[in-house]
């Protein structure tokens, strides 16, 4: 939390966050073009924002795209605003506005969380059918080899898969890329989206970055901007405490 407040205390860093708030997924060059400062200075400010987890980055070829990460702002809201019953600030407003913006060749949703665990355990939590059933309400079923089919199967015994797709990349325990599609639209490639899980270890913790791109409409963008935080919070609770949250987070009123 100290790193977050320190990062927010600087006007230039606040302006960088404002630029990402207006248009998420910018390169260093794009950000420098809107800040009257040398490239080296902007890089240093971005490093402070990354250290505070206010900005996350995703590489796309030779480019590194910068994204506003709303999680620390949400934690500030919970700790310093909600308990005083003041009017709620929309700490996740950037995610909502991102969902309203048309995006083409850039990732449409990026979420970063930190988990006290190991890469192997995080990988298992994402790919083991029984574990996914315990915190997601669906079983992720596949052999997780590149080119294999995967299914997101309901746990009610019906055997119905609500999402299917193909394993595009599988590099356990650090990276998994899959396509996602409604089974009824399987074969219609223009309706496919893509989800990338990047698992990065650091001493006793893991940074899990989820990138969901090529979503088909604004309704889908809105769904994932609320759905992924709930699912990943449940996963984090499972790995750190041994059990998921006591209530399904996606059922919280106002979600």
Q: Which outline best applies? A: globular
Q: Which structural class fits the helix and strand makeup? A: alpha+beta
SSE string: HHHHEEHHEHHEEEEEEH
Rounded to the nearest angstrom, the distance between the terminal CA atoms is 25 Å
Oligomer: single chain
Range of strand content: 25-35%
Tally the helices: what do you get?
9
Give the low-confidence spans.
85-91, 102-107
Protein name: Metalloregulator ArsR/SmtB family transcription factor
Domain HTH arsR-type: 1-88
Family: Belongs to the AHA1 family.
Would you mind describing this structure in some detail?
The chain is an alpha+beta fold and 255 residues long. 38% of the residues lie in helices and 25% in strands. The protein has helices at residues 2-8, 11-22, 28-32, 39-51, 71-81, 93-100, 119-127, 129-136, 218-241; strands at 55-60, 63-68, 109-115, 138-141, 149-154, 161-171, 175-180, 193-202, 205-213. The protein has a 7-stranded antiparallel beta sheet with strand order 3-9-8-7-6-5-4. A two-stranded antiparallel sheet has the order 1-2. A hairpin with a 3-residue loop joins strand 6 (161-171) and strand 7. Helix 6 packs antiparallel against helix 9 (218-241). The chain is globular. Residues 85-91 and 102-107 have low confidence and may be disordered. This is Metalloregulator ArsR/SmtB family transcription factor. It comes from Streptomyces gilvifuscus. Belongs to the AHA1 family. Residues 1-88 form the HTH arsR-type domain. InterPro entries: ArsR-like_HTH, ASHA1/2-like_C, HTH_ArsR_DNA-bd_dom, START-like_dom_sf, WH-like_DNA-bd_sf, WH_DNA-bd_sf.
């Amino acid at each position: 939390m100290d790193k977050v407040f320190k990062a927010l205390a600087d006007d230039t860093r606040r302006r960088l966050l404002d630029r990402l708030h207006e248009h998420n997924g910018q390169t260093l060059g794009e950000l420098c073009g809107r800040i009257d400062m040398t490239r080296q200075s902007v890089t240093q400010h971005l490093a402070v924002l990354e250290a505070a987890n206010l900005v996350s980055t995703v590489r796309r070829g030779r480019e590194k795209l910068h994204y506003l990460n709303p999680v620390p702002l949400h934690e500030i809201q919970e700790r310093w605003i909600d308990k005083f019953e003041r009017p709620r600030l929309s700490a996740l407003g950037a995610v909502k506005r991102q969902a309203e913006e048309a995006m083409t060749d850039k990732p449409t949703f990026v979420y970063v969380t930190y988990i006290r665990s190991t890469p192997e355990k995080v990988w298992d939590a994402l790919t083991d059918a029984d574990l996914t059933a315990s915190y997601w309400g669906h079983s992720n079923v596949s052999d997780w080899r590149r080119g294999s089919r995967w299914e997101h199967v309901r746990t009610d015994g019906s055997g119905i898969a609500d999402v299917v797709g193909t394993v595009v990349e599988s590099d356990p325990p650090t990276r998994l890329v899959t396509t996602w599609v409604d089974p009824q639209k399987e074969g219609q490639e223009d309706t496919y989206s893509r989800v990338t899980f990047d698992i990065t270890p650091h001493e006793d913790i893991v940074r899990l970055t989820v990138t969901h791109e090529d979503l088909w409409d604004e309704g889908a963008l809105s769904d994932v901007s609320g759905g992924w935080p709930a699912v990943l919070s449940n996963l984090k609770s499972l790995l750190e405490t041994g059990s998921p949250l006591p209530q399904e987070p996606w059922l919280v009123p106002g979600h």
